[in-house]
Amino acid sequence: MTSNTLLLILGIHALALISPGPDFAVVTRTAIVSGRRAGLWAAAGVATAIGVYVLVSVLGMSLVLAALPGLSRILAIVGALYLAWLGIQCLRSKGQLPDAQPAGANGRTFVSGFLTNLLNPKAMLYFGSVLSQALKPGLAATDVALLWTLLVAESLLWFALVALLFSSRPVLAWLRARLVWLDRTVGAVLLVLAAKVSVLAVR
Q: What is the membrane topology noted in the UniProt record heading this document (predicted)?
């Protein structure tokens, strides 16, 4: 793999990360509601799921989806249902910040971030089309390891920055009185995304 190819892939991935989506919404809300540590765990979950997708792409996810077109629809429907569930949870929120973090919250926020990305059809289509074309069968193992490390690190860095920003005291103080509306906005966005995904899945 040439350096130009590597930089191109990292650049495309950076643009995909910056684009607002379910991952951003979940990490942001988690950092605000449950604190910085929980937000970082959610960010780690998202980055871990991205690492899984990179590995699956190496194994030929695009070939599998081409051979089993029904699998893509099933994953899209499951992803839409999960996004809808997250959206409903946000809409039902009363906008209250917990005084203490319940036991095991870090593990749950990690799983939440992990599943949000893993069941996101946008991520599936992204890695199945763009990245799988760059990961040729003859690619050296060292190149695969380097690319996987850089993509996961880039993802973790971005979402960790998001978690740190939205868990900072100045930002948190400004949002404390607006948390109900933030939850409702995030919930509405997630429901819209779920609706779009479901429409595409049944076509």
A: Multi-pass membrane protein
